[in-house]
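To assess whether the prediction recovers the assembly geometry, we first specified each molecular entity separately, as shown.
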Amino acid sequence: MKHVTIKDIARYLSISVSTVSRALVNDKNVRKETKEKVLEAARILEYKPNPIATNLKYGHTNTVGVIVPEMVTPFASKVVSGIQNVLYANGIKVIVADSGEDPEIERENLKLMEHFMVDGIIISLCSWRKNAEDYRRLQKSEMPMVFYDRIPHGLDVPQVLVDDYRKSFFLIEKLILGGRKRIVHIQGPDDIYNSQERLRGYMDAMAKYKLPVEADSMIFKAGMTFEAGAEVAETLVKKGIGFDAVFAFTDTLAIGVMNRLRELGKKIPEEVAVASFSGTELSTIVYPKLTTVEPPLLQMGEKAAELILEKIKNPDCPNRKEVLNAEIRMRESSGNIHPE
Amino acid sequence: MKHVTIKDIARYLSISVSTVSRALVNDKNVRKETKEKVLEAARILEYKPNPIATNLKYGHTNTVGVIVPEMVTPFASKVVSGIQNVLYANGIKVIVADSGEDPEIERENLKLMEHFMVDGIIISLCSWRKNAEDYRRLQKSEMPMVFYDRIPHGLDVPQVLVDDYRKSFFLIEKLILGGRKRIVHIQGPDDIYNSQERLRGYMDAMAKYKLPVEADSMIFKAGMTFEAGAEVAETLVKKGIGFDAVFAFTDTLAIGVMNRLRELGKKIPEEVAVASFSGTELSTIVYPKLTTVEPPLLQMGEKAAELILEKIKNPDCPNRKEVLNAEIRMRESSGNIHPE
DNA sequence: GCAGGTTCCGGGAACGTTCCCGCAATCGTT
DNA sequence: AACGATTGCGGGAACGTTCCCGGAACCTGC
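The predicted structure of the complete assembly is given in tokenized form:
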């Protein structure tokens, strides 16, 4: 597997290595004819530039790391697609690591990216508080970072997300207009910005229609898996709590609740409506189909990639915050009120 | 972000670069005390070895590429986890590309991996025929490759898979013993080994019980998406074909059929049982839960990683074929006959 | 026709490592 | 005490590129 190098071309044409290099990077200080000769020679010798040599020269690795909170949902894979769309076009490798909703693993992943000397990190959190120290250290060492979707609470970092508050508000409003009065909320991790925002949207919508919210019987904190959702469903019916709708932080959670609720005899959506945030294709294959807020995942990835590119080029550029528009998808799980 | 190098350590200790290098790689030709001094200095100077320098030196990139056929299912992400488990432990980066069941994209991904000069490729096909040329070229250029799950038809390459034939056979047998007589099969791409094997398992099981199989009304070829499955469901009921079970190549396909069948009024599993291969967590969140053959995904990834490591170390080593054991999961979609 | 400017090219250092080679000092053997 | 063998270390080339510097050849304008 001997690779042909720039030297081989030089030798082949009895020309200097420098000239070949110049010809290849389109430097102006080279005659048209020689440039063409070099290009021709490169073609017939099947020359392929060796990225690691230039990487060493320039001191970067041409790879960015992506750390995603989970991968059982196609959420992350869609975003990663978007990221790759723009990064691959710029000759940058993408390595992705899955935290499995575990802060410990997230921390490991961070270390891993450092070890691999990536040029930048794109990340969606599973917990901010647990690893805040590491993020700060990384930021101090001028590692370019951009956050997407699940971002840290109140921090000046480049970020791309959707309007969690407004979308949650409108979604809850639609449930209420559809006749639901006792809407239970399953919260996300409380050190993540989005949890607070979605909760706030829920609260404000409930307040607008003067619907009571009892913190201990209508707001639940859980993990992030199907199973965690199922457990909330159990306590909900075991404690005999009266409710006619559930709004979950994530579609994983929502699917978990919905399925267990059905198994426990609740009719969906007749007796209880189910809705969630961060929907993916998954919400269309469950029964009934799940009402959810669907962020533009591909675009989210592309934007994140653009931001990291910007940061890599100029580490001192201002931290931009991109807010994308998410679609509210009303489906059967909520009684399909106000279809779009 | 100035990095401290081996030279800094050498200067700091008034010692030669060579000695520092030797101390760091545990060469025997260095005194214990100097080694300790170097290690100490490395610690307090916060030295981190620069992988790209050694990569250039040794002529490899320390990354392997993984090409997966799809990512809407968590199948690939689990396998990738397994791969990362062993590769990360060996200091090797993993970059993954998703072909989205499109041979064209698969081809692009192949090119991409070449361009990034990965040390090896682990791949699960979406089509063999369309890109056979590229694979052969790659193999001729001595690029280490290992295939998992979806492998090319009859070719001597390192591969890790499950026993598609036997598992399909037993699964169909269980359906038959559960009372199903007219079992429809939805085939996978016909240039993939697994399609042939699963079909063969289906045929032989049907034959064993003397059940007729009419090729044009019981065997269907489709795409690989939920939608493709749904379309088969449509033609099935529109043409008024009599059937009491469906066995699909993949759970994506199965979920597609099952959901549309239900929408069209078929009772599952009472009227028709549904079963599939290559099941993941997805098959437990749909309604009813899906009967499927579940390969040991993590282990599959780990084995694939071990094989690629072997190939990288010694390109001339024999092409091993690892057959893993898959579990048949009987669930509600098939009437839950013979539960384990 | 000559100073000054362009254009084009070659030499060689540099990026951070590893490793071969050679030399000095120490060791063990007789 | 003298010898080769071993141990410990430094010098420097090499991996494949880029890029600075300097020099040769050519053009320009007076």
